[in-house]
Design goal:
Structural class: mainly beta
Number of helices: 0
CATH architecture: 6 Propeller
Strand order of the largest sheet: 1-2-3-4
Number of domains: 1
Distance between the termini: 19 Å
Radius of gyration: 14 Å
Number of strands: 11
CATH topology: Neuraminidase
Strand content: over 45%
């Protein structure tokens, strides 16, 4: 998985989530302020951002060799989404907080399973 600096998703409030110049996830607000999202995740890709401030994405995190689906809730620490597969990906989040994504099955047959 690769990442690059810049905006990746926009919510209905005009807030933008993406990757900062330092390679870390951040939120840019319409007033020009920036919130750097905490955590030790690397190679982050942001895939969703709802109006409640929840950001979802995919990242390499310590202790895992494959990309993991992750979430930041209201600017808090990065959380790995729980699942039973080998690796997974988020694809988005709605304003109810429902996250869509998939994972590599525990059997490693190449068939994805919903998160």
């Amino acid at each position: 998985m690769s990442w690059r600096a810049g905006p990746q998703v926009l919510n209905d409030l005009g807030q933008v989530a993406g990757i900062g110049q330092d390679g870390k996830p951040a939120i840019w607000y319409p007033d020009g302020s920036i919130l750097h999202l905490p955590g030790t995740a690397s190679e982050v890709t942001i895939t969703g951002f709802n109006n409640q401030g929840t950001v979802v994405g995919n990242a390499l995190i310590p202790g895992y060799s494959l990309p993991q689906p992750v979430v930041w809730r209201n600017g808090g620490s990065v959380e790995r989404l729980p699942f039973s597969g080998l690796g997974g990906y988020t694809e988005g989040i709605n304003n109810r907080g429902d996250i869509i994504g998939y994972m590599a099955g525990a059997s490693n047959t190449g068939t994805g399973e919903p998160i």
